[in-house]
Description:
Elements: H1 21-34, H2 37-42, H3 47-57, H4 59-87, H5 100-128
Amino acid sequence: MADTAIDDLSKYVSGTDPFTAAELGAIARFRENLSGIPDIAFKGFDADGIRHLASEHGVGEARKMLHSFATDLLNGWWLAILSLKSDLPTGTDEPARHSAAAARYVAHLTAQHLNACEKFEHAVTMWFLDLDTDLSSPLYLNRDGDE
Length: 147
């Protein structure tokens, strides 16, 4: 993720207390741990991109890259979110309860990750089954137009 200014966190504090210094520190460490993973992960990632990768490097190499993508990028991203959740101070006697702002932020990150996983799964499925990437077709016809 690009180095995002702390002030973009303001959308998570609407109607609640602002982030504490400890929470901001945990978020800064989280962003550092990400090392740009969300930006790398899914900009323009689709079945056509995988097809291009396979034609350039061969199917076997494309499969290895996809495996690495899933294990290194997606898993690394999820582990960073889990680390953030445990790193965020709770400010309560309940260890799993975070401030409203922190809970909103973690929920947003979790939704981003889930969305990225779904895009990855969709792209790999479309490529593996050699389906057309035109999602306007409810039948997902293959490139030869066969049903």
